[in-house]
Amino acid sequence: MIEMGADDSSNENFAGQVVNQLKLDILNGYFTPGEKLKMARLKERYHVGVSPLREALSQLLVEQLVVVENQRGFRVHPISKAELADIYHTRAHIESLCVKLAVEQGDDAWEAGIVASAHQLKKAAVLLNATLSDAADSDSARDNMQKWEALHHGFHSAITSGCQSPTLLDVRRSLYEKASRYRNLWLKQHMVNNQVFDANQKDHDELMDALLSRNSDLACQLVYEHLLGPFKLLQNSDFDYA
Amino acid sequence: MIEMGADDSSNENFAGQVVNQLKLDILNGYFTPGEKLKMARLKERYHVGVSPLREALSQLLVEQLVVVENQRGFRVHPISKAELADIYHTRAHIESLCVKLAVEQGDDAWEAGIVASAHQLKKAAVLLNATLSDAADSDSARDNMQKWEALHHGFHSAITSGCQSPTLLDVRRSLYEKASRYRNLWLKQHMVNNQVFDANQKDHDELMDALLSRNSDLACQLVYEHLLGPFKLLQNSDFDYA
DNA sequence: TTAATAAAAAATGTCGACATTATGGGTGCG
DNA sequence: CGCACCCATAATGTCGACATTTTTTATTAA
After folding, report:
1. Chain A touched by B102 (CB under 8 Å)
2. What is the pLDDT of residues B202-225, one digit of tens each?
3. How far is the CA of B61 from the C1' of C26 (A)?
4. For the domain with range A14-76, which CATH number is right: 3.40.50.2300, 1.10.443.10, 1.10.10.10, 3.40.50.300?
5. Strand C contact at CB of residue A71, distance < 7 A
6. According to CATH, what is the number of the domain A81-236?
């Protein structure tokens, strides 16, 4: 029997596959905020008919990544400073809640998962810092950056998974996706420097200490502010609010 | 210019209308948990083709009211004791968070909305209690019950609206809907007595006092336990876990 | 030139049809 | 008697076509 992740496309219909691809295209900014999503264009890009496309768009509608107007088709959900602030603050609250519950309920396996993720993350951070200093190779910089982000997300997921609540974790996932769109749009215009990652590493160390010593209040507060850090950067730089 | 609510169906395509109707049918238990949703049946019931149906089902899929398996169609999302507990606990946490933020940010209009809703609710509760004592008219009992529930929901919505976070309120709405499915399924098997509403009224009075005096911690705790009250009833009675 | 109007083009939303896949019943074999 | 296999039936998922609506372009009048 072959193991397969949840995002396996072989046992999914076209709509499910398009959801994943289209979601990436929106989160990564290939389709820009407010942009009209014409069926002809989407048919070309994903090589499917209108039926799976509309099903996929219907799903992203609920996740608030697209908007719809009757007889006028779909558009990418617009962005705004107000929504940016709302998403990040809500996300910080939710993540903090996850942490609180995780500290209460987490077992040894939970702790092990955290230190394992932290270890991987630290390794990737070292590699990334080296790559960033070396201004030459911007291709592998982007590559290492993506790996770091995946591990960073994995680290926080390892922590929050301890809350043992699929419902709450699903809320968290949805908010993470919406926030990552804003972050990616920001990244398109700004280049990151090493300082960001050093501060991040410090945050993570402090957070892990608080978690392993089961200091719930401190951990919640650290996470809350850790998530609001990026927000402050995004908030000040006004990128294209279409 | 005519005012119209958000759930106006005239400016919605078929899919949007089917979403509302189908959602009601699932929440009210017309379609039972785990039941197969055959296209032929749905076409008959809602008088639309498969395209709008699949779009509607795709939306309910994200809201986790239906599940899908490739080439095997859609089913109503199954229920379980585990999910029941998870939804209600998460909902209690979220609602509590809404209250905390609302107490911090609520203005005079917010307070006014609360007392207004509370007044309406109390009136409806009196009427409902009278109807419930009168065992004869079970039709108007159900009718008054629905009105009371709408006002009850309105009361709590008036409170939580003060948090000023569309994102968080949307999470709340989604959880409310999922929870109401379990509650409705329970109501199909059990008859309510006056005691429940008396206790409820007491909860609401205490809660409103805490809110108006801006006692955040107390209000949060009261709401948390107020929402977990129904859960305890549902948890013990094992209705059809399909 | 600008504004209003009309015609043309494009795009959306829906349905019926078709290929593919699952389901259920019957048959034969062990 | 039970089990596997096969076939008929039914249901799903996808596409192309069509009617309706919106958007763009062209035309005319002020």
Report:
1. no
2. 889 999 999 999 999 999 999 999
3. 38
4. 1.10.10.10
5. yes
6. 1.20.120
